[in-house]
Structure formats: C-alpha cells, structure tokens
Amino acid sequence: MSTLLVVSRSHYSGGRTPRWIICDMGVHHFALLQDWFGLPEAVSASAAHDASQPDLVGENVGVVCLQYANGLRGVVINNWSYRGTWRRGTPTEEVVIQGANGAISATSEDGEVVTLHPEGSRRLAFSGHWFPDAFGASMLELLHALSEGRVSRCHGRGNLGAIAVIEAAYRSIAERGRSVALREVSEMFGALG
Predict the structure, then answer these.
(1) Is residue 45 part of a domain?
(2) Which among 42, 66, 89, 122 has most CB atoms closer than 10 A?
(3) Cβ of 45: how many Cβ atoms within 10 Å?
C-alpha cells in the first residue's frame, strides 16, 4: 500500500467566508494530486476553526483523507491557525510520497528521493520559486496550449475533479467524518475530467 502526505502550514489574512482553508488552499493540492494520481474514489475530512482568531469565519485547519481504488491513500493537511513569530508562509509547503520501495520528500525549495532496493538517495533541485512562479507556469502552459491548439493540462473540465473533492470533503465534515464516495457529488459536475 502506498501513502501520500501533503502538508501546508501557513498564516493568511483571508478566511472571511464559511468555507476557507479546504477550498482556498486545498484546491491547489487536490488539483496536483489529480494530475499525479487521478481522482480518488472516496474522501473523508475533518476541519476546525481556531476560536482565538475571531476575525476568521471559515475553518483554518483542515485534514482531508483521500482513498484511491488502487489502494493509494493520501492525506492533505492545511493548518493556517499558527500565530507565532516564525515565518510560516506558503513557501513552507511539504509533499511526501511514500511507497513500499522508498519515498519522495520535497518542499518548495528542494527535495530528495530515497529508494530501498537498490538502497540510495538523490537530491532534487528546483529552479525558480514556488510562490508566485507556480502560478506563472500554469498560465504559461495555458497560453502554450492555446497557441498549439491543444487542451491545456489545467483546463476547466479537468479541474472539476478538484472541486468535487472539495465538495466531498465538506459533505464529510457536515456528516462527522463519513467517507463520501466521489460519485455522490459527481452529479453536481457532470462528467469529471
């Protein structure tokens, strides 16, 4: 069985709507995971609102568990409740993909691939900066797709899958963590791409 963990720790001045961290930050992670692994089969979630931050309306802590038909399990954790003095903005995101033969660990600055058979490790180097370069890269890919007459990797219908994951997560939260099959919310979006 493979395990996937995406962690984001940030503090942000938003949160003025009832739905916040899962839909505003989680959407990026869900779209990335959809690109890498496809859509999950089921979603379960938990969320909290840090009452010591009365200006926030929505949840600022969210944990979303993804279950894939092939046995892959994923966890997306977004925690924007931190109020300490350490700088913990969007660039501190961490992605961990772990399987039976090794793991890939990465932040927005660098990463590492570790394998068990054969035993070894290799550093990953990234160019540019995650924030805001990732947004520019997405827009550039869209412009290339338009000029080449092809469907973009970030086309609207394809992104409906990430939105369906968000809807399933909020349904799960409303129903005290029940595992929600993605097909339960897919009728809201038609055919998911």
Answers:
(1) yes
(2) 66
(3) 27
User: Cα separation of 146 and 70, whole Å?
Assistant: 34
22-64 pLDDT, tens digit each: 998 899 899 989 988 999 999 999 999 888 878 888 898 999 9
Q: What are the tens digits of pLDDT across the range 151-179?
A: 998 788 888 999 999 999 999 999 999 99
User: Is 92 part of any domain?
Assistant: yes
DSSP one-letter code for 59: -
Residue 174's Cβ-count burial label (10 Å; 0-12, 13-18, 19+) is: exposed
Structural domain includes residue 23: yes
The closest alpha carbon to 118, from 96, 99, 102, belongs to 102
DSSP secondary structure string for all residues of 90-127:
GGG-EEEEEETTEEEEEESSEEEEEEETTEEEEEEE--
Structural domain includes residue 151: no
Residue 63 is which amino acid? V
Give me 151's structure tokens.
Answer: 């469907």
Give the range of the structural domain holding residue 41, as residue numbers without chain letter.
3-128+159-181
Beta bridge partner(s), residue 62: 47, 78
- Nearest CA to 69 out of 41, 48, 44, 96 is that of 41
Yes or no: say if 21 and 49 are a contact pair by the CB < 8 Å rule.
Answer: no
User: Which CATH number goes with the domain that contains 174?
Assistant: 3.30.360.10
